[in-house]
Specification:
Two copies of one chain form a homodimer.
Chain A: E1 2-6, H1 12-20, E2 25-29, H2 32-41, E3 46-53, E4 57-58, H3 60-68, E5 71-80, E6 84-87, E7 98-101, H4 103-107, H5 110-115, E8 120-123, H6 127-136, E9 142-146, H7 148-154, E10 157-160, E11 170-178, E12 188-195, H8 201-210, E13 216-224, E14 227-237, H9 243-255, E15 256-265
Chain lengths: 268, 268
């Protein structure tokens, strides 16, 4: 099974994909848009995308793409984000002068840099890509910060594990496939909808779930792409594809337009 | 008046601060936390922070800090994000081999790099910081991508203006001050609140506004910092500090706890 991800082999998306689809072959894409293009063209069977991080918030672009494209969510997965210092075999901590990684990862490892004031933090495109860079160029005074998979993929060595400041760092991933596919027995539903900009419109929209005792576990308004300050709502519901849920969505369609079911899937 | 921002002089926050408080002196901070620390300590009079970008979504860390700290929103401002290619005076486009900027800015200028395949995109910490780097090191084969203010601050020259792919790129900024300060005549209110994780809880919470014809212009659930997958809601309301609004908030406090008013301010 071919699974597309955004980012390099060895990245956190790579790790999530390997855990969600053991034995899959990974197709690494430079951009998120390319991940969705490949899925819709059918050149991959599935894709794994990060949707929300407990510290950094939602990945807005992925919500926008879920709404715009003909794909559906098949599963969710929560990955604990652990940052590691990874260098070439033989390189010792005291020889390191520069550490490359994505700015967000560097920022999540401030305590490490405070404890090692002689090491310079160097921004790079990608966490796993920074390890690839260090290994491919045979740098012996540099390291990268990335997940442990990056060490395995590029044959680096972990010099320090778990150097992130905040251990409560999780990312939620979706496994997505082309077309509209409801997962049998799925108990979680993600939807997107737009309501008119009048008082009480969102309240009315939510009434279709509250009046049926369907719980919301997440809601978020996002400016519509290309129409700044017009909002679309994303919501996660604790319901599957049963009669009550279908009635609720029909009821919602009287109030909101468009309504799109992004997926009915098993929760993590 | 001293205004703290996160990032370098010449950044988009710098531009927003200069427009919101003409003639202010800017205190540039490396981290957002430092901006809030300075404000609470009283070493600056105010701060200007980005809260939401029309393409990239909310700045999650700033919502978390608004909730945690003793500050309040005084005003909002919408800045159109225009990216410019900025180099040292005398440097010509055809001499440029590397372009530095923040990865998000580089990503928003893909068409430029596609049109100039010989130019390498180099990730950097900060948009304005990339221009500072190019100017301070006298690089004559490199440029930075940043707002026009960066050219003015570091005495660079704009070689190409408006090179961002998507022109509908806006960022919403807040001017914040220490303590609880309601802006007289303010017609917009931002709040944060937590509800129990039971069906219909959010619906009940929103009823306090719907039943009083108070419009919501934004709502977002965020995992609570340090407690992944427990959610706090952020909402923007079209109401000021009048009797009806105060009743609505008292009503909300019966259902949600805690409820924090992040600010009552004039809308952009």
């Amino acid at each position: 099974m071919k699974v597309a991800i955004q980012g390099e082999a060895g990245s956190f998306s790579y790790e999530a994909a390997k855990r969600m689809v053991p034995g899959c072959s990974i197709v690494a894409c430079a951009r998120s848009r390319e991940v969705f293009d490949r899925l819709e063209r059918g050149s991959v069977n599935a894709a794994v995308i990060p949707i929300e991080n407990s510290l950094a918030g939602s990945v807005a672009e992925h919500f926008d793409l879920l709404l715009a494209r003909n794909v559906s969510i098949q599963r969710e997965y929560r990955l604990r984000i652990v940052h590691n210092l990874i260098a070439a075999p033989g390189v010792k901590m005291k020889g390191i002068r520069r550490v490359y990684s994505h700015p967000v990862a560097l920022d999540q490892c401030r305590d490490f840099f405070r404890a090692h004031p002689k090491i310079e933090a160097m921004p790079f495109y990608d966490t796993a890509g920074s390890v690839k860079h260090v290994m491919e160029n045979g740098l012996n005074d540099a390291a990268g910060i990335a997940g442990r998979q990056a060490a395995a993929v590029y044959k680096g060595r972990i010099l320090a594990a778990g150097i992130e400041d905040d251990k409560k760092n999780f990312t939620r991933f979706f496994l997505i496939r082309k077309g509209r596919r409801i997962v049998p027995g799925g108990k979680k539903t993600s939807i997107a909808f737009r309501v008119k900009n009048v008082p009480g419109a969102l309240f009315k929209a939510l009434s279709v779930f509250a009046l049926r005792d369907i719980s919301l576990t997440k809601i978020e308004s996002r400016p519509m792409r290309g129409r700044p300050w017009e909002y679309v709502f994303y919501a996660d519901l604790l319901c599957g594809d049963d009669k009550v849920a279908r009635n609720a969505l029909r009821h919602l369609a009287e109030i909101a337009s468009p309504v799109k079911v992004l997926g009915v899937y098993r929760s993590a």
